[in-house]
Amino acid sequence: MAAAKGRRPKEDGHFSRKVPPIRQTASIFKQPVTVYKTQESKVKTDIKHGIQEKPKQLIWEKRLEGLRACDLDGTEFEAMELPKGLKPVGPHVTEETIIQSVATALHVSTQPVTGQMGSKTSLEKNPGVFLDPKQPLVQAVNIAEDDIKRQEDRVSIARKKLEEALKTI
Question: Judging by beta carbons within 10 Å of its beta carbon (0-12, 13-18, 19+), is residue 81 exposed, middle or buried?
Fold first, then answer.
């Protein structure tokens, strides 16, 4: 294939223009043509440049089952107890998995942590369809004013104990 005048082949084999196109008329003087874009075209690469989020594997927390945190001596820490309001959801999800799931959601997620909104039966039946990978593997949690009040009381008691301990030092 011979190269046309004023063009050179690109890497993909197509030609690109180095000079503006010339009007092809019977005129004696060749006049350059000004090209105006009348419409914007969307290319696949333009669509891809938005905020891209990596896909998240469903039930990835199960890979951490059986692993425990330990101190410098290698002694494993005791297992944590979950509040009674947190119910596991998903196939074969243990309390250990829930702790890892909730902890990760609280530390990593930028959106509110609410739990899985689907019904427990639908989530157990077909987790690939109904599980939200951005939420922990617990049923949706509703926090009442009484819960908040109890937690505030616990915090104030802990602060008083800390204040007394610091006075003795």
Answer: exposed
C-alpha 155/C-alpha 40 separation (Å) is 59
Q: How many CA atoms lie within 13 A of 54 on its CB side?
A: 3
The residue among 6, 8, 9 whose CA lies nearest residue 32 is 6
What does pTM read for this prediction? 0.52
Distance (Å, rounded) from C-alpha 154 to C-alpha 76? 27
Q: Give per-residue burial for 8-25: e unless 16+ CB within 10 Å, then b.
A: eeeeeeeeeeeeeeeeee
- What are the structure tokens assigned to 115, written together? 């739990």
Instruction: Give the other-Cβ count within 10 Å of 38's Cβ.
Output: 4
Nearest to 5 by CA among 68, 17, 13, 107: 17
Residues 82-97: tens digit of each pLDDT: 777 788 887 788 888 8
For residues 73 and 143, what is the distance between their CA atoms, to the nearest angstrom? 39
Nearest to 131 by CA among 53, 51, 57: 57
- Residues 103, 111: Cα–Cα separation, whole Å: 14
Both tokens assigned to 112: 């509110």
Average pLDDT for residues 22-32, to the nearest whole number?
65
